[in-house]
Write a structure and sequence with these properties.
By secondary structure, the protein is α+β, with helices and mostly antiparallel strands. It has two domains: 2-117 and 248-261, Diaminopimelate Epimerase, Chain A, domain 1, CATH 3.10.310; 122-241, Diaminopimelate Epimerase, Chain A, domain 1 (Roll), CATH 3.10.310.10. It has six helices and 18 strands. The chain has an 18-stranded mixed sheet that branches. The model has no long low-confidence stretch (mean pLDDT 97).
């Protein structure tokens, strides 16, 4: 069996920036074990597999090198880039089992606007000891949604200076950890750590902005926010917060197209 594979840099318009994702369009699903093996072999933060449904939409599944992931924003952007190019369309509707319908529109400037369900965090009444042990700087506030703990800091420099203890953070599984603070050249900055689920630090994490954007929208009293994920590769995201959804917009660029021999 031969399958086409694409590798896309998401949330950037410059190669070797943003977050990389592999995309494998399918005509029918492979076994879970084989998709996991492909994700591990690719060794990028996420591999997205898509399969067109009878109504023209696409089922989508995401695999890190370690496990299947419920929801991945940057690999959804990468998959939209591939499918819009492949089929010469400007809108793709995805369906993810854990998150439902995800609509992606390609804008005239080449960026992609992804409308996702809002996943705003709520305050944590008792902060886990392992979270505090895993962060070199104590946060001023901690919240949580279904995906991660949110460690909130006062300054963007705190986010840059932060180091982590992966062994401690692994103990928080199935929750990952995002650290965030007000930005200087943007509205807010963040970094994302997921040692138990995918790797030490994710370069750009679209999914967590469905929680970050509502939080900072309330703090800053604005519904359109510019975000920057301050990883070693860095990534830029435009976030628009509505009553029930968050639209996250970013660019993407192709790195490669090749063939899997299975």
């Amino acid at each position: 069996m031969q399958l086409t594979i694409h590798q896309i840099d998401a949330f950037t318009n410059e190669l070797f920036k943003g977050n990389y994702a592999a995309v494998v369009p399918l005509e029918s699903w492979l076994s879970d074990d084989l998709m996991l093996k492909i994700g591990a072999e690719n060794n990028v933060s996420e591999t997205a597999f898509t399969c067109q449904k009878a109504d023209g939409s696409y089922a989508i599944r995401w695999f890190s090198p370690l496990m299947e992931i419920d929801f991945c924003g940057h690999a959804t952007l990468a998959a939209a880039y591939v499918l819009c190019e492949q089929h010469n369309v400007t809108q793709i509707t995805f369906y993810g089992a854990a998150v439902g319908t995800l609509i992606v529109n390609k804008n005239p400037n080449g960026s992609f606007a992804m409308t996702f369900p809002k996943q705003a965090p709520t305050p944590v009444l008792e902060i886990p000891t392992k979270l505090l042990q895993g962060l070199s700087i104590s946060p001023v506030k901690v919240l949580k949604n279904q995906q991660a703990y949110f460690a909130i800091y006062e300054t963007a420099q705190d986010i840059i200076d932060l180091t982590t203890d992966s062994t401690a953070l692994k103990a928080l599984f199935p929750f990952d950890v995002v650290a965030s603070a007000p930005g200087e050249a943007c509205d807010f900055v963040s970094r994302y750590f997921w040692p138990a689920s995918g790797g030490e630090e994710d370069f750009v994490t679209g999914s967590i902005h469905t929680g970050l954007a509502p939080y900072w929208a309330e703090q800053l009293n604005k519904t359109t926010l510019n975000a920057y994920q301050a990883s070693s590769r860095g990534g830029e995201l435009l976030c628009e917060v509505a009553e029930q959804s968050v639209t996250i917009t970013g660019h993407a660029v192709r790195y490669l197209k090749g063939t899997l021999y299975l």
